[in-house]
Amino acid sequence: MLKTVVMKFGGSSVADTDKILRVAQRVVASKKKGNHVVVVVSAPGDMTDDLLQMAEKITRLPSERELDMLLSTGEQVSIALLSMAIHSLSVDAVSLTGPQAGIHADANHTRARITKILPSKIQEELSKGKVVIVAGFQGINPNQDITTLGRGGSDLTAVALAAALRASSCEIYTDVTGVYTTDPRVALKARKLSRISYDEMLEMAGAGSQVMQARSIEVAKKFDVELQVRSTFSEEEGTWVVKEVKRMEEVVVSGIAFDKNQAKLSIVEVQDSPGVAAKIFGALAQSRINVDMIIQSAARDRANSISFTVARTDLKKAVPLLQKVSRELGAKGIVCEEKVAKVAIVGVGMRSHPGVAAQMFQTLADGKINIEMISTSEIKVACVIKESNCDRAVRLLHRSFGLDYDSKKKS
Ligand code: ASP
Ligand code: MG
């Protein structure tokens, strides 16, 4: 039986027709090695954002069903053009929308989950010797409507298809050569990792690394799909995302992630009684505002302060809502800090090494960087700091934990 390979190309890889032709060559090369090739593509360049903006110009609150109808067109541009490009190289190919490819999703428009994949049409086309090109980020819901899988959802399509087709590999092609210890644009001495574990990759994504959609990594972990993140435009070997990294023992921190799209909100002197946090965060949840870090101060005189972070893009929605809740709860008021960033160190090695958090705090202290909030998981320590300190904090931590490429420790 032939091996099945899933190749996923992100928006920057299909941003214009020249790039689409180069992607086609790469796909054809894999096909000529004798593989069954399934390709997943994103919308070209910034098309998804452009479409979203168009919708917002028409109405502030577009119907989510129609939004999905609109956004899903971006990927359809890519699959049709890529299929034509492959034909131009005299190789047979067919483009399929998510519904045609048998990708079934739940009824949550704009952020649906994949419920099952019935890949019979894909398999039929593969058996005819065709390259199959599937539109990422979309599926069909029980109402027969097209639905999208959340931003960055083409990664999810690729990983889920690799699991459903029992593919021998799932290659994520992008505009960087792999997963780095941190963003090389911020820390020039960042290194490409040869391997990273699912858990680390998940924490990195949650802490702001943009390499892959977090949900797709969860699915890869669940179904043991080994991924390779690599560049569309070079032959260089990328980064493997796998269950366990063998060399993990010596490495305490594998990477540093950061997120500058953060804002901090506090509700000050709110009464200390059952149901208060539930009311505050219930209201935010109802307006679909994602809350990240939360701190509640120790109660004094039956009052405490609760601070939390939200995406800066949600601030406009969150402030009036919190003001209203604050009045209803009789709190003293709210405080808003618009420009904060989150910096996180991530590494499975932390599980067995004490003192990692202390080293992070000391490094920030030496750089005179104030920490406003802290949160931890088993393999991550994250701090909220002023945005203006973010790049410097990343560089200091990168050096402190031996990640600079000219440092002695190597992973
Ligand atoms: N085009 C969609 C987005 O921009 C899906 C993707 O790129 O994976 O979110
Ligand atoms: Mg995209």
Summarize the structure.
This protein is α/β, with parallel strands linked by helices. The chain is built from 11 helices and 18 strands.
> Which value, in Å, is the CA radius of gyration?
23 Å
Number of helices: 11
CATH architecture of the largest domain: 3-Layer(aba) Sandwich
Shape: globular
Low-pLDDT segments: none
Helix content: 25-40%
Tally of discrete structural domains: 2
- Strand % is 25-35%
Query: How many distinct beta strands?
Result: 18
In CATH, the topology of the largest domain is named Carbamate kinase
Subunit arrangement of the protein: single chain
Distance between the termini: 37 Å
Distinct ligand kinds: aspartic acid, magnesium ion
CATH superfamily of the largest domain: Acetylglutamate kinase-like
Structural class: alpha/beta
Secondary structure layout plus pairing:
Elements: E1 4-9, H1 17-32, E2 36-41, H2 47-58, H3 64-87, E3 93-96, E4 103-105, E5 114-117, H4 120-127, E6 131-135, E7 138-140, E8 146-148, H5 153-164, E9 169-174, E10 195-197, H6 198-206, H7 214-222, E11 227-231, E12 239-242, E13 255-271, H8 276-286, E14 291-296, E15 303-311, H9 315-329, E16 333-346, H10 356-366, E17 373-377, E18 380-386, H11 390-400
Parallel strand pairs: 1-2, 1-9, 2-6, 3-6, 9-11, 10-12
Antiparallel strand pairs: 4-5, 7-8, 11-12, 13-15, 13-16, 14-15, 16-18, 17-18
Helix pairs in contact: 1-3, 2-3, 5-7, 6-7, 8-9, 10-11
This protein binds aspartic acid and magnesium ion.
Magnesium ion is lined by residues 11, 42-43, 48.
